[in-house]
Amino acid sequence: MGKVLFIRQENYDQEGIDSAILRAFENFGGVRNFISKGDRVLLKVNLVSGHDVERRVTTDPSIVRSAAKIVIESGGTPFIADSPGIDGFKGAAEKAGFMNIAREFGIECHELTDPVDLPVNDGADFRRIQVSRYVLEADKVINLAKLKTHAQMYLTMGVKNLFGCVPGRLKAGWHYNVGLSREKFASLLLDIYLGVRPSFTILDGVIGMHKEGPTSGDPYNFGIIGACVDALSMDFALCRMLGGKLEDYPLYMAAKKRNLPQCESFASEVEGDIDSSHVFPNVELPKTRSMRLLPHVPFLERLMTSKPVHIPEKCIGCGRCAEICPADALRHENRRLYFDYGKCIRCYCCHEMCPVKAIKVKDSLLLKLVNMIS
């Protein structure tokens, strides 16, 4: 429960970004309130996979550069890190522009590896979660998230960004373990967020993504930078501002089940250049609401849930989709994908990791019907 700041920023001009990021820190008491001299500071970027900056899949390098500069000027030592789902880290970080920042400032940019147990919080649903030791060994974590839609989890913003603290292929294991339950996966995200507890969250919403995010959607110029200490309050405020309903947001439903104070409508105090009544026009969000109308019956959930389908004419035959699938539910032959929908857990990792948008998420007829009448 806390204050959320939204700053208008229409482009990635470095001078404007520097001014906005400095304003964000000053609005919460100044940089010294978060960074002490000698602190080793993890800049947790969004590097889900290797994409050119113009795709707007990853945190923009101008924001990472600004945060690194502020940490250095405050006497801290920043390092840039994340754990991509399937790509090699160095290549992905080069494409995203992060390696250039590391070379410019002479700082580290490396993958979040070496899993260790995350301390368990009171009320946690999962008793053992492993995150990178670099996360727990950092003196401070600054969360540099990206504003995007998400085919499975509705939205990915401040809280969801910390799933990248789970190293490499362990993420696929979690997808398989939680199966079709979005709320269970959201509860996992809550446990990770409450365990890592980033000192500060900055959200890149200058140009985010809507439609089929987090990698295959379309860029959307939201024109904002968000800042907060409490990422839950920011994410819930933005859900409404994007035209979504909190009841359709699995993260909100998981938090409400725990009676977290951020779920109260008055919990967040929105300040800055736009207020909480603002609604961004024509944002297309994923369809998840019908899932909450059903009892937890796997057979019904499979019938109701959107499924990934192949677009053969776009396929380049890279095989990444079959490689990343945690349920071993598809095979790839001669640029053709064959899905076993009985095994498919609807995590959409295949959709997320496809570099050429050759997999789309398609509603079932039953899902379309329920969405029309609900």
Short description:
The longest helix is centred in the middle third of the chain and has 15 residues, at 182-196. Helix content is 31%, strand content 21%.
What does this structure look like?
With 374 residues, the protein is an alpha/beta fold. It has 2 domains: 3-272, LarA, N-terminal domain (Rossmann fold, 3-Layer(aba) Sandwich); 289-373, Alpha-Beta Plaits, CATH 3.30.70.20. Helices cover 31% and strands 21% of the residues. It has 13 helices and 16 strands. β14 and β15 (336-339) form a beta hairpin. The longest helix has 15 residues, at 182-196. Residues 289-293 have low confidence and may be disordered.
Q: Which short descriptors sum up this protein?
A:
Rossmann fold, globular, 2 domains, Alpha-Beta Plaits, alpha/beta, two-stranded antiparallel ribbon
Lay out the secondary structure.
Layout (H helix, E strand, L loop, with lengths): L2 E6 L5 H14 L12 E5 L16 H13 L3 E6 L6 H8 L1 H8 L2 E4 L3 E3 L12 E3 H5 L2 E11 L3 E3 L13 H9 L3 H15 L3 E11 L7 E3 L3 E5 L2 H11 L8 H8 L11 E4 L25 H7 L2 E4 L9 H5 L5 E4 L2 E4 L9 H5 L5 E4 L2 H9 L1
